[in-house]
Specification:
Length: 95
């Protein structure tokens, strides 16, 4: 598959981009390089390769989920100028 200057110009028009001829030539060349790289990657034989979730053999070490702090809600709310139903009451900022 190959990208042409006309297709790059067409896509540029759809995207409402104004590209001069040198920019179109450069974009066409770069896009064709990307497509050539994809073709090279698709030519590699990967039949005996297992899919990987991550390239390194890393495992996530998780700690136990334990409560480490006490619930101090009432003590913290005692410092608030106003509280209601276990929550801070603040002035309305959006009408």
């Amino acid at each position: 598959m190959s990208i042409t200057n006309e297709s790059v110009q067409h896509v540029a028009e759809l995207a409402m981009l104004s590209l001069d001829q040198p920019a179109i030539d450069k974009a066409t060349e770069k896009l064709n390089q990307v497509l050539n790289l994809i073709d090279n990657l698709q030519a590699v034989d990967t039949d005996d390769v297992e899919p990987l979730a991550h390239p390194l053999d890393a495992i996530q070490i998780l700690r136990a989920d334990e409560v480490t702090k006490q619930n101090n809600r009432d003590a913290l709310l005692s410092n608030a100028p106003e509280s209601q139903d276990g929550q801070f009451v603040v002035p309305r900022v959006v009408e």
